[in-house]
Design a protein that fits this description.
Elements lengths: L2 H19 L14 E4 L3 H6 L3 E11 L2 E10 L2 E8 L14 E5 L13
Antiparallel strand pairs: 1-5, 2-3, 3-4, 4-5
């Protein structure tokens, strides 16, 4: 596989992942019916485990503030990590801690029910 082919594959994968999850980046609190399940793992741990950053959304508005959302992927596994921006020094509002969410099949769907 040439570098160009590899780069195109990575770009296409990143674009597909971003298109699938972009509507969810506007809200860091993930509803229970979502395809994202809260995970105790950190972005640092994911990167050390071989996950690659495939997309970053800067400045999504979350709970009155803004946050960066980082999407990582390895093989058929994907996570999004939401990193809230620190409030300015004048603000009394505490910063929400960073959180990662694992992409899972939608609730009520079995793993074998996906279209092939």
């Amino acid at each position: 596989m040439t570098f160009r082919t590899t780069a195109r594959t990575v770009a296409a994968t990143a674009a597909a992942l971003l298109a699938a999850v972009a509507p969810l980046t506007a809200n860091a609190q993930t509803p229970p019916s979502s395809q994202w399940r809260a995970s105790p793992i950190t972005l640092s741990s994911l990167l050390q485990d071989g996950y690659k950053i495939v997309a970053v959304v800067n400045g999504a508005h979350v709970n009155g503030g803004s946050a960066d959302t980082i999407f990582v992927q390895r093989d058929q596994s994907a996570f999004k990590c939401v990193d809230p921006q620190q409030p300015d020094a004048k603000s009394k509002t505490p910063a929400t801690p960073p959180a990662c969410f694992e992409l899972v099949p939608p609730s009520g769907a079995s793993a074998g029910s996906e279209a092939k």
